[in-house]
Amino acid sequence: MLTVNAYAATSATEPLVRTTIERRDVGPNDVLIEIRYAGICHSDIHTVRGDWGPQHYPLAPGHEIAGVVTEVGSEVTRHRVGDRVGVGCMVNSCRECEYCRRGEEQYCREGNVQTYGAVDRDGTITQGGYTTHVVVNEDFAVRIPDALSLDAAAPLLCAGITTYSPLRHWNAGPGKKVAVVGLGGLGHMAVKFAHALGAEVTVLSQSLKKREDGLRLGADDYRATSDPETFERLADSFDLIINTVSAGIDISAYLGLLKVDGALVNVGAPAEPLPVNVFSLLLKRRTFAGSAIGGIAETQEMLDFCGEHGIAPEIEVITADQINEAYERVLASDVRYRFVIDIATLN
After folding, report:
1. What does DSSP say about strands 258-266 and 238-243: parallel, antiparallel, or unpaired?
2. What is the CB-side half-sphere exposure of residue 211 using CA atoms within 13 A?
3. 8 Å CB contact between 133 and 35
4. I need a surface site. Which of 73, 180, 187, 339 has the fewest CB within 10 A?
5. Residues 41-55: what's their mean pLDDT?
6. Do 126 and 77 belong to one domain?
7. Which domain holds residue 129?
């Protein structure tokens, strides 16, 4: 076992603290990754605070991991020592069900193994990227293109793939009108991707305070949802709406913005249910859907797409001692647009 430095939650109510955790020995199909950077996702906060159910503590969160391979198992073929790699929201799956076989491990019939707070196949509880090292099966580490810096690449492993996957699945591109609800960690990446894919992009935000940012990131239009006229003027306008917020919104009102056969896809994950008026769906053959990250192959595709098109998240790099402050700032929407922890500050 390898003992490594970490920043972890000890309960649902206490601040995260410096500690150590143990990593398994490198097996034949494993790689040991020295983590250089880890993004802070809203999911980290929900999880450690028990919003999505009870957790095992201590718990080191973090599923936006970028680093360098420092050791490989005897049977590893995908990676070599020195490779720049990333680890996202999952570190294992059954590998045998229909979804795993077609490269959609995120929808594994038995449930994929989440990067932290999950029971791995060997019965241990997984620990995430707020640590100096991680050991993962080679199949769940993806290559980071040289064109991407490691600090900027880290948020792509969740915020990036979470927005790229539904845009691809619902065929965002030339001739399509896409709306993005919320301009935060997820939303700003959705804008960048939709623009790069050739769609016409509108940001729907509570206010216009980030309008300049939205247009700079690639949006063609920016509307305030606090203005009731927004929903009247934009009725029946969009082919696709990506909802990135992790709070309750009036889903039926947003469904009214879709054209016939349009889809509203939720990628944000509020703790409370989102009620829907079924007539908002029936009368225009609209779809209300959800999407969860992407498979390993699609994650690699997304990273390569970012490398080729010069796409990277807007980040603020922090030290490990600033994590608790960063959590409060995330909850206050006081970040543009993703905190990234410099893991060297854990040493």
Report:
1. parallel
2. 9
3. yes
4. 73
5. 90
6. yes
7. 2-158+312-346
